[in-house]
Design goal:
alpha/beta, seven-stranded mixed beta sheet, six-stranded parallel beta sheet, 11 helices, 26% strand, binds zinc ion
Length: 367
């Protein structure tokens, strides 16, 4: 079928709207008409080559829409079902079988192989030349997406569908780090480094936990003010004070957990140094390819954990459905992070996100 998609032709090239041909759904696959898709910095990383994806190709990995058609063997979904397209996974490897599909041993191929996990791009130009598809199993900068039924999560009919796409990645990443990894105990003290989409989602999740101190650290006062309104109990402007000293003072010692959401190597070290013995530093931010960090051996040895979390861990369905319900109950108001753009304005949306003017851009698809 014919679709409209924002194609990237080469590294750092612009997004150009083009007409492409998309395959019909095969066994286990679902065709989704996208209502909207979030954009996150991972799309920018892929265009820049830090996350290698074959080009020309179609990016986009936070799609929400309605089911148009299903392939053989798909019984759980039917036409017009509203869905979010979550992360892909093979479903068969050791980690998938252990209930941790975010750490699928075939994750690299599944998110950035440029086609279906078992071969072949689903997108072609009208002249028949291939265009890489299935970025994060979906390539959602397009009017339609071909994905697998396993990746989908149903959206309750009463929720605004266009808003739900970011649950596929950025929002779940921050919330899952709290719900699945940190699991704050009563009276826990947390420090969140970087309050963009992921950090703010972590703060909203922490507000739904028994943590009693939630410290937001950032360089932008506007974001710190937003963090405070979403549940941060304290804010620290890292351009004004030393954030590690500020955390130690606020907590009366090291924090129990620190979440590093920036991917900036100097901030990684600050996050590690903000927690002490038996504390946990959670690394979430995506650093440039090849980046390394160092830690102090002795102080890190004493029961401190440094753990990387991808996509919030756990299973999409449980995590995303939980956030949808919390949103409906007014306990997770992530709509306050969002600004809508048209698909044609994808470039502007990404630029405004990098500039910090927009926290979570969402692209609406042309009808
Ligand atoms: Zn797997
Ligand atoms: Zn993302």
């Amino acid at each position: 079928m014919r679709i409209t998609a924002a194609v990237v032709e080469e590294l750092d090239g612009p997004f150009t709207l083009q007409t492409l041909e998309l395959d019909e759904p095969g066994p286990g696959e679902v065709l989704v008409r996208l209502a909207a898709t979030g954009i996150c910095h991972t799309d920018g990383l892929a265009r820049h080559g830090d996350l290698p994806f074959p080009l020309p190709g179609v990016l986009g990995h936070e799609g929400a829409g309605t089911v148009v058609a299903v392939g053989d063997g798909v019984h759980e979904y039917a036409e017009n079902d509203p869905v979010v397209i979550g992360w892909p996974s093979c479903g068969a490897c050791r980690n998938c079988r252990a209930g941790e599909p975010r750490y699928c041993l075939r994750l690299g191929e599944a998110v950035a192989g440029g086609g279906r996990l078992d071969g072949g791009s689903a997108l072609r130009r009208p002249d028949g030349s291939p265009v890489a598809s299935h970025f994060f199993g979906q390539s959602s900068f397009a009017t339609y997406s071909l994905t697998t039924a396993d990746a989908l999560v149903k959206v309750p009919a009463e929720l605004p569908l266009a808003l739900m796409g970011p649950l596929a990645c950025g929002i779940s990443t921050g919330a899952g780090a709290i719900f699945n990894t940190v699991r704050p105990s009563a009276g826990a003290q947390l420090a969140v480094f970087g309050v963009g989409t992921v950090g703010l989602a972590a703060i909203m999740a922490a507000r739904n936990s028994p943590a009693t101190r939630i410290i937001a650290i950032d360089r932008h006062e506007s974001r710190l003010a937003l963090a405070a309104s979403l549940g941060a109990t304290d804010t620290v402007n890292a351009t004004v004070v030393d954030p590690v000293a500020a955390v130690l003072e606020l907590c009366g010692g090291p924090a129990d957990s620190a979440l590093e959401c920036t991917g900036v190597i100097s901030v990684v070290r600050q996050a590690v140094d903000s927690v002490g013995m038996l504390g946990t530093c959670v690394l979430i931010g995506g650093a440039p390819a090849g980046a390394e960090f160092t830690v102090d051996h002795i102080s890190t040895l004493w029961g401190k954990r440094i753990v990387g979390v991808l996509g919030g861990s756990g299973r999409s369905r449980e995590l995303m459905s939980t956030i949808m319900q919390l949103y409906a109950q007014g306990r997770f108001p992530f709509d306050r992070l969002v600004q809508y753009f048209e698909l044609a304005d994808v470039e502007e949306a990404l630029e405004k996100s990098y500039a910090g003017e927009v926290i979570k851009p969402i692209l609406r698809m042309p009808s």
